[in-house]
UniProtKB/TrEMBL annotation:
Name of the protein: Response regulator
Localization (cell): Cytoplasm
Residue ranges of DNA binding: 131-230
Membrane-spanning intervals of the chain: none
GO molecular function, one term: identical protein binding
Keyword Transcription among UniProt keywords: yes
């Protein structure tokens, strides 16, 4: 199996949800462990080989946001938040704090497994050789030649649009928050003004999307940020 050596830690205090996630993982042949609180999870992360963590934010002994900060001090393992907190600011805070993805309860087994596979693909790309290009659904970004093409036809993009495409494509499948995009593309001094970001995204979509209102490549996560398609 492709993921037979991947070990997943489920950090969830609700027995029903924890058992459901464990069932989903076992059903897909993912080896997994579970923890019902933050302290137990941290101990397991230190002592056992864990490749990905599914994390509930509402733990009985510590807030999940603190858990993310603790882990990010020494590890870059993928963290997928699974939480009932559905406010946009909560999602953005978790992603900005170091989480790789965010799933809102309730969720389906199909969604859970798709998010896990996406996170593992991204981890494999990060640890493998540096990619020379990115391609999805006919959209190709040649990092070496700095050429963007759609179905074999070159597309003219501005330097700022190219930077945005590279950033999104190198994190395909992950939600990049508005604040993270502003800081990376324009610099930390740009503040929180999202007007320029929205204008840049609108112009980029007009060039690569058949229907900008119903995108195929760059998706809006309302109130949080943007995500590049990942096949």
């Amino acid at each position: 199996m492709e993921y037979e050596k991947v070990r997943i830690l489920v950090v969830e205090d609700d027995p029903q949800i924890r058992n459901f996630m464990m069932y989903c993982l076992h059903n897909e042949d993912f080896p997994c462990e579970c923890a019902a609180c933050g302290k137990q999870a941290l101990s397991m992360l230190i002592s056992e080989p864990i490749d990905l963590m599914l994390l509930d934010l509402g733990l009985p002994d510590m807030d999940g946001m603190d858990m993310i900060r603790h882990v990010r001090e020494w590890s870059q393992l993928p963290i997928i938040v699974v939480s009932a907190r559905d406010q946009d600011k909560e999602k953005a805070a978790a992603l900005d704090g170091g989480a790789d993805d965010y799933i809102t309860k309730p969720f389906s087994a199909m969604e859970l497994m798709a998010r896990i596979r996406a996170a593992l693909r991204h981890r494999k790309q990060d640890t493998g050789t540096k990619k020379m290009s990115f391609e999805v659904r006919g959209l190709k970004i040649d990092y070496v030649k700095r050429i963007v093409s759609l179905n074999g036809q070159a597309i003219h993009v501005t330097p700022m649009e190219y930077s945005m495409l590279v950033l999104l494509s190198q994190n395909a499948g992950k939600v990049l928050t508005t604040q993270m995009l502003l800081k990376t593309i324009w610099g930390s001094s740009y503040g929180t003004d999202t007007q320029a970001l929205r204008a840049l995204m609108a112009g980029l979509r007009r060039k690569i999307e058949t229907s900008p209102a119903d995108p195929s490549y760059i998706f809006t996560e309302i109130g949080v940020g943007y995500r590049m398609a990942d096949e």
